[in-house]
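Much of the work behind modern protein science is quiet bookkeeping, done one molecule at a time. The protein below has been through that process, and both of its lines are reproduced in full.
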Amino acid sequence: MFFYQAEYLSWILVLVFLVLIYMAQVQIRNKRVQKWLGKQQFFLRELISEKKRHLKIGLQVLALLFFIIAFARPQKHGEKIDMQTAGVYIALMADVSQSMLAEDVKPSRLAFMKQELGRFLDLSRGDQVALIAFAHSAVLVSPFTQDLLAVKSYLKDLTSDYFTNQGTHFGKAFDFAGKTFQRIREKKNQTAVKVLIVASDGEDFSNTSKNQIKKLLEQKIRVFTLSFGTSKGGLIPIKDDKGEVLEYKKDLEGKVVISKLNNKDLKNFARLGKGAYYHVTYGGGAIKKLRLNINQLEKTVFETSSFVKNKEIYFWFLILGLIFAVFEVLLSDRSFKTKGDN
C-alpha cells in the first residue's frame, strides 16, 4: 500500500500533538479539582462518567485518524496497461487570399472557414495536425503536432495580411504541402497515413496544380477539399484598422470585383487526390462527413506508452472513520449510577 497524496499524513502529527495537550490538561484539571474540592469532587462528578468521556475522545481521535488516511488516498499497485496513440497525419491548408474576405458568407468566407476548421479540430482525436496558410505562396504556421489547442489558436490568428502578393496559386501551395509531409519521420516498416485538407473558395491562378497533386499521390497523400462561398459571389471589402469599409476591391479597369465560388477546380483536386469534396454551409454536415471519412482511414501508431492503473482503497478508511464518528455521537458521557450503587 502507498499513498497518492502522502502530504496529508502530516496532519497525524498535529492530531498526536492535540492528544498530548488533552492528556496534559486532564492531569492539570484533576490536580486542581483535588486541591480545591477534596472529597467533594466525587459528589460533583456523579453525573459525568470520566471513562465514557475519555472513550468519546478516543472515538473522535480514531475517526479523525481514518479521515486523514482517507484524504491521503491509499492505493494498491494494479495492473500494467499499454496505451497506443494512433491517428492520421493531417495538414490543414487554409486559403487566406483577399477573395476569402468576400462577405457572401457572413461575416466573411475567411471567418467562416476558421470557424469550421476549428470545429474539425474539436472533432479530432489523436491526429498529428499541421497548419499551412497560402495565397500566391505558402507558409507553415504550425508544424505537425498533437496539441490541437495550439493549432486552433494559430488558426484563429490567420488573416489575409500574411502575404503581400495576392491571388491564389494552388500549384505552389501543393508543392509546399508535399515538402511539409516529407519532414515526417516514419518508423521502420510503417507507412504513415497522410491527408491534405484544402479549404478555399477555389479561385486558382496556377497551371501546375494537377502535376503537383500527382506528386502528392506518389507520397501517398490523399487530398480532401472544402469550399467556402456562393455561386452568386460577393464584394471584397477593403477596411481600415477599425474595421470600417473604405472601398471595395476593383480590377485593373476600375470595375468592382465580384468574387464567386469556383468549386470546379476543388472537385477536380479531390478527385485526382483520391479524396472527397465538400461544400461548407451554415448548419450543414460537411465537417462531420469529412471527419467520418478520415476516421475510416487506417490509423498510424505514433507512440506506445505504459502505465500502472492503481486501485483506490481510501473508501475503506473513510467508512471506518464514519463508523467511529457515529459511535462517538451516539455515546453519552453521563453516568447512570443510582444512590444504591457502590
Notes: The first helix runs from residue 11 to 37. The two ends are 50 Å apart (CA to CA). Residues 338-342 have pLDDT under 50 and may be disordered. The longest strand covers residues 74-87.
